[in-house]
Write a structure and sequence with these properties.
Blueprint lengths: L2 H7 L11 H15 L5 H8 L3 H12 L3 H19 L4 H7 L5 H12 L3 H17 L1
Helix pairs in contact: 2-3, 2-4, 2-5, 3-4
Length: about 130
């Protein structure tokens, strides 16, 4: 790691060089949970007066995943829940969870769940209809 890269990972001057890493990571996770549609790690970095690289490194060190991976997981789980429990169209769900690119969402969803959003919804409807008949 170069000196410049190492400097990027240090806390910013706004906190006298000390930042509670756990609080920083929790703020990043809260950003995902409460603002997943428009979540942005820059918001957390700005509020703690640290670099984006520093927040990103803290999140990865504590969770084992990148902020983007955590955000995608939350968005996909929310989309799956909406597919199961709502009558929203797939396009409405895509927008609701914060994706603008439909084909990108479909690709992520298929990779994560092994089927398209429509197939996922239909398979859940079939299961619940079968369970209701018992």
């Amino acid at each position: 790691m170069t000196e410049l890269q190492a400097k990027d990972l240090r806390p910013g001057p706004g906190r006298s060089g000390t930042v509670d890493k756990e609080a920083l990571v929790q703020a990043a996770l809260d950003e995902i949970a409460h603002n997943y549609r428009e979540a942005n790690l820059s918001n957390v970095a700005h509020s703690y007066q640290v670099s984006l690289a520093y927040v990103s490194e803290c999140v990865r060190a504590q969770t084992g995943k990148t902020y983007k991976e955590l955000l995608q997981k939350h968005r996909l789980e929310t989309a799956a829940r909406l597919l199961r429990r709502s009558d929203m169209t797939i396009q409405q769900i895509i927008s609701q969870v914060g994706y603008e690119n439909t084909s990108y969402f479909y690709r992520l969803f298929r990779t994560h769940y092994g089927q398209s959003p429509r197939e996922y919804r239909m398979s859940r409807l079939t299961r619940s209809t079968f369970a209701d008949r018992r």
